[in-house]
Amino acid sequence: MSMELTDRILPEDEKAVFEGLLAFNLAHLEDKEPRDLGIYERDGENKIVAGIIGYTHGNWLMIKYLWVKEDLRGQGTGKKLLLEAEKEAEKRNCKYVFLDTFSFQAPEFYKKYGYQEQFALENYPLTGKRYYYTKSLTHAAE
Q1: How much is the pTM?
Q2: In CATH, which superfamily holds the domain spanning 33-141?
Q3: What residues are paired with 35 via a beta bridge?
Q4: Host H or E run for residue 27
Q5: Which residue has the higher pLDDT, 120 or 140?
Q6: Is 35 within 8 Å of 92 (Cβ atoms)?
Q7: Where are the domains of the chain?
Q8: Omega of the bond prior to 125 within 30 degrees of 0, cis?
């Protein structure tokens, strides 16, 4: 056996590591069927001007990205996307939401909609912060 250190990860090497981890995880996870979730706002030319991308897995909605074109910010588009994603997550029987955001992005936005900080990476990547939030969805208390 030999160990290799590199700063250039080849697609086939990443695939080998991912597939090994995936096989291990699938043997231990109760829910083996995560489902993608995408919601998009399009303009008159059918171009995406805002969107949310994530997936549901078991009890959780995991939000990967929420973006609103700069000239549309502050008009309720982000709120509409977030609430629609939460609504769909509840239809999929999710009880919780998880996401992360940088200090220069939207921590106050998420707090306004009931998200609670779980932890923050300080000095990330150098001088900023990266916040990790969760939220319990309404039907979780049922």
Answers
A1: 0.84
A2: Gcn5-related N-acetyltransferase (GNAT) (3.40.630.30)
A3: 56
A4: helix 11-28
A5: 120
A6: yes
A7: 33-141
A8: yes
Distance CA(91)–CA(37), nearest Å, equals 12
pLDDT, tens digit, for every residue of 16-50?
999 999 999 889 988 878 999 999 999 999 999 99
Which residue shows structure tokens 């995406």?
A: 48
Burial call 77-90: b when 16+ CB within 10 Å, e when fewer:
bbeebbeebbebbb
- The stretches of 29-133 forming alpha helices (DSSP H) are 77-91, 107-112
- What is the token pair recorded at 44? 């008159």
DSSP state of 76: T
Whether the per-residue pLDDT at 142 is higher than 50: the answer is no
